[in-house]
Amino acid sequence: MLTAKNHNGSLVTLFNIETKEKIIEMKKEGHYHCPCCENEVTIKAGKMKVPHFAHKRNSSCHAFSEPESEYHLLGKLNLYQWVSTQYPATLEAYIPEIKQRADILVMSGNKKYAIEFQCSSIPEEVFIQRTNSYLSAGIFPVWILGEKNINKLGQNEFSLRHFDWLFLSGSQESPSIVAYCPLKHRLAKLHKIIPFSPRTAFALHSHFPLSGLSFNDLFEMQSGVFPFLSRWREKRRAWSFHNGKSANWKDPFYRNLYINQLTPATLPPEIGIPVPGIHMVETAAIRWQSYIFTDTIYRKEEGRPVLMNEFIQAYRNRIDMGHIRLRVLPLISEKDCLFPLFGYVSFLLSTGYIEEREKGYFKVRKKVEIPRTVAQAVELEKNFYYVHQNLLQWGK
Fold first, then answer.
1. 229-242 vs 374-392: helix crossing angle, rounded to 10
2. Do 67 and 27 form a contact (C-beta atoms < 8 A)?
3. Which pLDDT value is given to residue 112?
4. Of 113, 135, 259, 323, which has the highest C-beta tally within 10 A?
5. What is the spatial distance between Cα 94 and Cα 105, in angstroms, rounded to a whole number?
6. CB 167 within 8 A of CB 145
7. What is the pTM of this model?
8. Which Pfam families match (predicted)?
9. Among 60, 57, 44, 78, which Cα is nearest to 147's?
10. How is 231-296 classified by DSSP, letter by letter?
11. CATH classification for the domain delimited by 67-223, as one of 3.30.70, 3.90.930, 3.40.1350, 2.60.120
């Protein structure tokens, strides 16, 4: 921690102490106490270390339960210095009513924001509990991920842990992950995030010097086309060709394919496409869309009716069975779990596979062609992306 109480009960900070001699003098002056639990703390300062206070061993302070790395301390300090030039801000503010300490508490007009710079993983339930506690106190939580945790696989391709997805914030239509690197003094944003699988996602990775940003820039919305369609297509094609070799027929996904006389290599290209809201589903698109397809329109002949409620029921049934898993997104307050399903149904409607007769009532207009050979699957896939490229780049 960067703040503590001295023997007079006044808050003192270490980040603005300019000399090592002054730090040594402060250590000799007397005792310091945690502003949250009142237990005694000691000053830690060494070579290439951010001077800070630390609890003594076996401390049970609930507000400072995590050890803080130099990376975290420096990032917290940089963010505080940045935001305090724009709005009134308090470093390591303790909020008694929720017994929680914010890295930085910001007052912007009549709104309060709690900035949490998180560099290490914490249990999901702790993340959610802290978020909900802030909201219950009328404080808007702003979680910023340590950029060192972002695992880049290649150009615009990332491996995101389950924990990283908790940082997804903004609207359900266009969320992003905000990260910060104190060593490079830059803020980063992952936006246009399109997951291909539970961990692998495509995203735009933008960097901004912290000095050139305002606090309100953290909440700026991103929009535009899906810029990774060709990469998505390559990954989808590779999955189709190679996935069957390692298929576990005890897996309900493969079992469902077998029951419906389908194989990974000959799945129609209409299954496994990027749709709006896809980030809300943890299950890979090719899996959850195959369930929706086989459970609704696959067996229906042209001209047969299909209701929106059938799509919804199929989706919810698969969620209940654990075949489709939704992501836990505590920072997106207004979200509809049906949003990605509506995106997929909208695709089927726009491409003419179904047509709407009245609200919520469709009929099958044309059947999805099921390839019978790998060669036919390749040809159908090529034609599919040629015809529907603009539609799949939704927003174009």
1. 160
2. no
3. 96
4. 113
5. 9
6. yes
7. 0.85
8. CoiA_C (PF25166), CoiA_N (PF25164), CoiA_nuc (PF06054)
9. 78
10. HHHHHHHHHHHHGGGG--TTSHHHHHHHHTT--GGG--TTSS---TTGGGB-S-HHHHHHHHHHHT
11. 3.40.1350
